[in-house]
């Protein structure tokens, strides 16, 4: 039975019993007295329980539930259960909100929530970094007071028009190119997504420049090759065998130049896209340095004095890729040969450093390089003197290859040069790449 009905029936029963008992003991006056006093006592008890209930509900959370009987026991138990249930719901909501925030923070894009007045309600760290804002000070501010670019404000007005994302550069973070997208959702709020596309735009620009440079670099030798071949064909009936051979030799030289360019392009592409090898082979520096010296001598054809020096009788072992290191060292030595006048001395040297690492350097007494060109020497196709570089047979990719090889070996390239006095290109390797040599 319902506790409240049971208690009401109890009061009625006690009133009747009390009235009958009072009538039997004291007559009619006793009947009235008992009939009035018992309900009054009941209501006083109810008032007391109500006071207990008020004190309990205003007490700190966790206060034990007052003890009671009958209907009031059911009231206190129901309120206690409802309180526990509400607490569980709040905890669950708090947990879900925290999960949402963590998920939003983990997104690789910036996320911002705006209310109906374009006030910032919340944003993650990526949005803060992309837009140049601060969570501590900018939450609660209107986004249009912080980002004032007219195209952005116009874009906000089109939130419900399903327009394409906006490419934006802001004055608050001028070094970044952003892609902004808006979406309307519940209660008039707006979700603003921000993506940093600075690197993508740089890569697109580099790709366009790269294609343009490759096309330009291939166009010249290809045109010359075609010209010499056509000349040889036209002169077949009139020119001597020696003249025809000269035309074909010149065409072959240009074809080899294109071949070298394509080989360097493939090497550079492999270095940029392939992961470093999963293992490090021990490269015997003694043999590698001698091989690089022989290649430099073959390229020089006796026009230069090439010297190999080491700071020990047994050069150490260098951990890395033999193919990549040979390419880097040979490019440095080859450049010294190409850009040094006949009779110049070129020194190839390996030396240990004070940290336990070591370095390979190529020093020449050639034409030297002006200081303003040095920071750009490792860019693809960058040449200090384009005409001289082509005459020397360079592809413009050698130092770019060197830079990528050294990066894959945690090494650094240092360039010291002075016009008219020569240059020194040094590759410094960290200690963990160096092992003691063991030569017999």
Count of discrete alpha- or pi-helical segments spanning 4 or more residues: 12
The average pLDDT value, as a whole number, equals 80
Query: What percent of residues are in strands?
Result: 15-25%
Sequence stretches where pLDDT stays below 50 over 5 or more residues:
none
* Helix-and-strand structural type: alpha+beta
Shape: elongated
Distance between the termini: 104 Å
Question: What is the radius of gyration?
Answer: 44 Å
H/E topology pattern: HHEEHHHHEEEHHEHEEHEEHHEEE
**Highest CATH level, the class of the largest domain:** Alpha Beta
For the biggest sheet, the summary is: 5 strands, antiparallel
- The CATH homologous superfamily of the largest domain is called Histidine kinase-like ATPase, C-terminal domain
CATH architecture of the largest domain: 2-Layer Sandwich
CATH topology (level 3) name of the largest domain: Heat Shock Protein 90
**Percentage of residues assigned to helices:** 40-55%
Quaternary status of these chains?
Answer: single chain
How many domains make up the 3D coordinates?
A: 4
**DSSP strand tally:** 13
**How do the strands line up in the largest sheet?**
2-1-5-4-3
Structure overview:
- The chain is α+β, with helices and mostly antiparallel strands and 440 residues long.
- It folds into 4 domains: 3-94, no CATH class; 107-196, PAS domain (Beta-Lactamase, 2-Layer Sandwich); 200-273, Orthogonal Bundle (Helix Hairpins); 281-435, 2-Layer Sandwich (Heat Shock Protein 90), CATH 3.30.565.
- The chain is built from 12 helices and 13 strands.
- It has helices spanning 3-58, 70-106, 125-131, 135-138, 143-146, 150-156, 198-234, 241-273, 285-300, 322-338, 386-392, 398-408, and strands at 110-114, 120-123, 166-168, 178-184, 190-196, 281-284, 305-310, 317-320, 345-352, 358-364, 412-418, 422-429, 434-435.
- The strands form 3 sheets. A 5-stranded antiparallel beta sheet has the order 2-1-5-4-3. It has a 5-stranded mixed beta sheet with strand order 7-9-10-12-11, covered by helices on one side.
- Strand 11 and strand 12 (422-429) form a beta hairpin.
- It is elongated and about 145 Å long.
- The mean pLDDT is 80.
């Amino acid at each position: 039975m319902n506790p409240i009905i049971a208690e009401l029936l109890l009061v009625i029963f006690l009133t009747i019993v009390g009235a009958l008992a009072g009538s039997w003991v004291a007559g009619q006056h006793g009947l009235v007295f008992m009939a009035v006093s018992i309900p009054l006592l009941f209501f006083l008890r109810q008032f007391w329980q109500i006071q207990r209930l008020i004190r309990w509900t205003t007490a700190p959370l966790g206060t034990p539930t007052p003890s009671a009987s009958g209907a009031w026991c059911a009231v206190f138990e129901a309120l206690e259960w409802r309180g526990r249930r509400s607490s569980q719901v709040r905890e669950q909501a708090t947990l879900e909100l925290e999960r949402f925030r963590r998920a939003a923070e983990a997104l690789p894009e910036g996320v911002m929530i705006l209310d109906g007045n374009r006030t910032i309600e919340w944003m993650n760290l990526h949005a803060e970094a992309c837009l140049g804002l601060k969570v501590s000070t900018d939450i609660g501010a209107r986004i249009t007071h912080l980002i004032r670019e007219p195209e952005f404000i116009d874009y906000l007005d089109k939130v419900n028009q399903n327009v394409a994302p906006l490419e934006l550069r802001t004055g608050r973070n001028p070094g970044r190119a952003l892609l902004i997208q808006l979406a309307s959702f519940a209660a008039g709020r707006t979700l603003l997504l921000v993506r940093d596309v600075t690197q993508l735009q740089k890569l697109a620009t580099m790709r366009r420049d790269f294609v343009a440079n490759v096309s330009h670099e291939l166009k010249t030798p290809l045109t010359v090759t075609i010209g010499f071949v056509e000349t040889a064909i036209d002169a077949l009936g009139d020119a001597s065998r020696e003249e025809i051979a000269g035309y074909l030799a010149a065409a072959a030289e240009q074809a080899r130049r294109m071949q070298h360019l394509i080989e360097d392009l493939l090497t550079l592409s492999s270095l940029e896209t392939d992961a470093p090898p999963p293992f490090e082979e021990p490269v015997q520096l003694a043999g590698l340095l001698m091989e690089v010296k022989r290649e430099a001598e073959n390229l020089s054809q006796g026009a230069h004095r090439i010297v190999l020096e080491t700071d020990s009788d047994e050069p150490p072992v260098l951990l890395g890729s033999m193919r990549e290191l040979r390419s880097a060292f040979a490019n440095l030595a080859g450049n010294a040969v190409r850009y040094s006048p006949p009779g110049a001395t070129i020194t190839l040297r390996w030396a240990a450093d004070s940290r336990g690492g070591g370095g390979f350097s190529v020093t020449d007494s050639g034409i030297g390089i002006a200081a303003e060109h040095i920071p750009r020497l490792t860019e693809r196709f960058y040449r200090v003197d384009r005409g001289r570089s082509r005459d020397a047979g360079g592809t413009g990719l050698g130092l770019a290859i060197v830079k990528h090889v050294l990066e894959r070996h945690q090494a650094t390239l240092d360039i010291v040069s002075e016009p008219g006095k020569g240059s020194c290109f040094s590759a410094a390797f960290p200690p963990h790449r160096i092992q003691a040599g063991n030569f017999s």
